[in-house]
């Protein structure tokens, strides 16, 4: 028989050091790192952030309240203390990496769009119509030149 090649999936795994985003609850929208896996439904998280408003205290949380991000703090020991987590968090530049991700940019765009008033939404609609008209006009020119 041939050698069996076992590959892990490319999906984000629940692992110590994985950075998570709170989807619901008191800390919604904040980042934290998995410090310990309690069981198949719960993990211990700790979120040392640069500002007081973004910090997440160490506590157990259900995985159903979290979203796993692609960011991992490499070689974080199991049940690491707050100081160790903070140093690794800053060395990995977690907040900078997350703010540059498409996920964070999309979140910001949605929040900005929700904050618009009626007149601002109207202006956005008009600008989108103008842009669409320009695209259609250029496409018509290309199509006409292709037929000729």
TrEMBL record:
InterPro entries: Rib_uL2_dom2 (IPR014722), Ribosomal_eL14 (IPR039660), Ribosomal_eL14_dom (IPR002784), Translation_prot_SH3-like_sf (IPR008991). Keywords: Cytoplasm, Ribonucleoprotein, Ribosomal protein. GO terms for biological process: ribosomal large subunit biogenesis; translation. GO terms for cellular component: cytosolic large ribosomal subunit. Residues 57-132 form the Large ribosomal subunit protein eL14 domain. Signal peptide: none annotated. GO terms for molecular function: RNA binding; structural constituent of ribosome. It is found in: Cytoplasm. It comes from the Eukaryota. Its main location: cytoplasm. The keyword Ribonucleoprotein applies. Belongs to the eukaryotic ribosomal protein eL14 family. Component of the ribosome, a large ribonucleoprotein complex responsible for the synthesis of proteins in the cell. The small ribosomal subunit (SSU) binds messenger RNAs (mRNAs) and translates the encoded message by selecting cognate aminoacyl-transfer RNA (tRNA) molecules. The large subunit (LSU) contains the ribosomal catalytic site termed the peptidyl transferase center (PTC), which catalyzes the formation of peptide bonds, thereby polymerizing the amino acids delivered by tRNAs into a polypeptide chain. This is Large ribosomal subunit protein eL14 domain-containing protein. It comes from Aplosporella prunicola CBS 121167. The lineage of its organism: Eukaryota, Fungi, Dikarya, Ascomycota, Pezizomycotina.
